[in-house]
């Protein structure tokens, strides 16, 4: 039996992704006429992330971006959506990459931490870019007693996002936003960074989020993506 895995809306079309154990199908319909305009079946299942939950009226589905190219529907697999800026949660990958450069005795968690801290300093230098506005972080916090939303003012420079006290952190870009996953002893915080018009408006947004009066969807509507600033630095 096929299971509805994702609904994604773009322009005047809606992509519905159905997943089975052996294949997934993408059906694209015109939102105004409901007419089926494309259908694709791909063998092998698709691995979707839980990070970008759509609003409740979209059925708790997963977002799978798509676009048309030469009349064909192109889906973006999860592993091609994420472009990592910095992470200290990739020890195995780092150890494998360093195997030809240093000895086995030097491949240790301590040396990994040292290298990653140096890399983080480099990324802060790379992302020393002023934004037109004020950066706000919206977070879904994993607490010991459940999840709740939070927010904080970040600053006017992209490098200001690259600070955290959590145990394991990954900052990355998806096709639309700059995000972070922060793992700590109680759970995981999922963070999205966006740009408000000015500091006064940023403070207003943080207050509304703190008192539970603004959803992530509303936050996105009232702010601009930080991604173009990062993409311009790395050529993404």
Topology overview:
Blueprint: E1 3-10, E2 13-19, E3 23-30, E4 36-43, E5 66-69, E6 72-75, H1 78-81, E7 83-87, H2 91-98, H3 109-126, E8 130-143, E9 146-157, E10 168-173, E11 178-184, E12 187-196, H4 199-210, H5 216-221, E13 224-225, H6 227-234
Antiparallel strand pairs: 1-2, 2-3, 3-4, 5-6, 7-10, 8-9, 8-12, 10-11, 11-12, 12-13
Summarize the structure in words.
The protein is α+β, with helices and mostly antiparallel strands and 236 residues long. Helix content is 24%, strand content 40%. The chain has six helices and 13 strands. The chain has helices at 78-81, 91-98, 109-126, 199-210, 216-221, 227-234, and strands at 3-10, 13-19, 23-30, 36-43, 66-69, 72-75, 83-87, 130-143, 146-157, 168-173, 178-184, 187-196, 224-225. It is globular, with a radius of gyration of 20 Å.
